[in-house]
Design brief:
The chain is an alpha/beta fold. The protein is built from 11 helices and 9 strands. The longest helix is centred in the C-terminal third of the chain and has 21 residues.
């Protein structure tokens, strides 16, 4: 399923423009480099459109949000849409404040996203920020389980159809859907939730995979499995959270297509 995705990524070495948060920006840059792409972390309004114009993907992360960067996110997103560059949204902390909620609404209104990735609470907040999906999340619980899988899948598929974006819900297991086909990935390790930035890094890895690929859904699924698999391998080499973060980036730099093919725990629902 993931034949030559990493080899092609390293061959093309796409530029990934990341407007991300200052808590995790260094880790995001390093994992984009590790996977074989080239990161640019530019967020000033005076240059974001120019930087996006020379990039193959744009990742927007609202983790440390402010009015200045909201304007930059919208400007870069519009430029990306104009030139056909895929845009990935990571709605970090969506639902936690009025500012974040309004920013998500503005971004959904002004920018067409190729992928939206978050935990289920964040994705529910994204749904509330879309006029076409308001209220549909009322009965969706905050964890994907065997008992509520059908409900969460239906929710994610509807949001994907309404937004036109591949929806990724990450958690104990990860859900990836384009509104028609839906994948469940069970790679990963609980240690990933104990470090800051694993989700932010994943969104940037998705940007790199989508930038060099041909199918947004399968490229996104490959990125999710790759990140989870690297988390599993990193844990085996780690003594604590700090070494885990370091080993996570190391494992991404060493990952091959063959290892990804063998290690991916993914199913089509």
């Amino acid at each position: 399923m993931f034949e030559k995705v990493l080899a092609n990524l390293k061959l093309t070495n796409p530029v990934v423009h990341c407007i991300t948060n200052y808590v995790t920006v260094n880790d995001c840059a390093n994992i984009v480099l590790a996977v074989g792409a080239s990161p640019i972390m530019a967020d000033d309004l005076e240059e974001v459109a120019d930087i996006t114009a020379i990039s193959k993907a744009l990742v927007i992360n609202i983790g440390t949000l402010n009015q200045r960067t909201i304007r930059s996110m919208i400007a870069s997103g519009k430029k990306a849409n104009q030139i056909g560059v895929p845009v990935i949204l990571d709605p970090v902390g969506a639902g936690a404040s009025a500012l974040r909620n309004e920013a998500v609404k503005s971004l959904l209104k002004e920018v067409k996203f190729s992928v939206i990735r978050g935990n289920i609470s964040e994705i529910k907040a994204v749904a509330l920020g879309s006029d076409t999906t308001k209220g549909v999340d009322a009965a969706v619980s905050d964890q994907l389980t065997d008992n509520n899988r059908q409900e969460v899948v239906a929710f994610a598929q509807k949001l994907s159809r309404d937004t036109g974006a591949v929806i990724v819900i990450t958690g104990i297991c990860d859900l990836i859907t384009d509104g028609q086909q839906t994948y469940l990935c069970q790679n990963g390790h609980s240690m990933m939730s104990r470090i800051t930035g694993s989700g932010c890094m994943l969104s940037c890895v998705i940007g790199a995979f989508v930038a060099s690929g041909e199918n947004v859904l399968t490229d996104t699924a490959a990125a999710v499995c790759a990140m989870g698999l690297c988390g599993e391998m990193a844990y085996q080499e780690s003594v604590g959270t700090s070494t885990f973060r370091m080993n996570l980036i190391d494992q991404m730099s060493l990952l091959s297509d063959e290892h990804l093919q063998r290690g991916a725990k993914i199913e089509l629902l």
